[in-house]
Amino acid sequence: METRFDHENLEKKIYETWEKSGLFNPDTYIKKGLMKKNAKSFSIVLPPPNVTGTLHMGHAAMLAIEDIMVRYARMRGLKTLWLPGTDSAAIATQSKVEGEIYKKEDKTRYDLGREELLRRINIFTEESKATILNQLKRMGSSLDWSRYAYTLD
């Protein structure tokens, strides 16, 4: 018999249930008859984290406060939207990637050439973005993922 509580699996299942319900999207409340069409609106745009790595404790504190505000607004019957997104932070991202390449390979962007540098920046960006989105979900953020935006889209 397993005596260790598997919180990771349980948290993942709970969040998947929340996502499948569609209730992070204010339009779902109206479609399901849980809210009036003319309900007052409440919205917050997630300050988009830069795709230069991972989230830190400052992000976690901000997410907790914003999530409390959003869930409280939903409980009050407001048409509530918490809009998610990430930011390219183009110069910072390029600098981070160039630094990693130099540290690992002792090469500069000039050694790589434009196309190869852009390819590597894109790979780093996609990996970082996936990590950040996973972190946002793991923290239980009730963001409307159907409206996710990336600043370079």
Short description:
The chain is mainly alpha-helical and 153 residues long. The protein is built from six helices and four strands; from the N terminus they run ααβαββαααβ. The strands form two sheets. It has a two-stranded parallel ribbon. A two-stranded parallel sheet has the order 3-4.
Q: Would you kindly provide a written description of the structure presented here, covering whatever features stand out?
A:
It is a single chain. This protein is mainly alpha-helical and 153 residues long. It has a single domain, classed as HUPs (Rossmann fold, 3-Layer(aba) Sandwich). The protein is 56% helix and 9% strand. It is globular. The mean pLDDT is 93. One of its GO terms (cellular component) is cytosol. This is valine--tRNA ligase. Pfam families: tRNA-synt_1.
Write a concise keyword list for the protein shown above.
two-stranded parallel ribbon, 153 residues, Rossmann fold, 6 helices, mainly alpha
Outline the secondary-structure elements.
Blueprint lengths: L6 H15 L4 H6 L9 E5 L11 H19 L3 E5 L1 E2 L3 H16 L3 H4 L1 H25 L10 E2 L3
Parallel strand pairs: 1-2, 3-4
Helix pairs in contact: 4-6
EC number: 6.1.1.9
GO cellular component, one term: cytosol
Protein name: valine--tRNA ligase
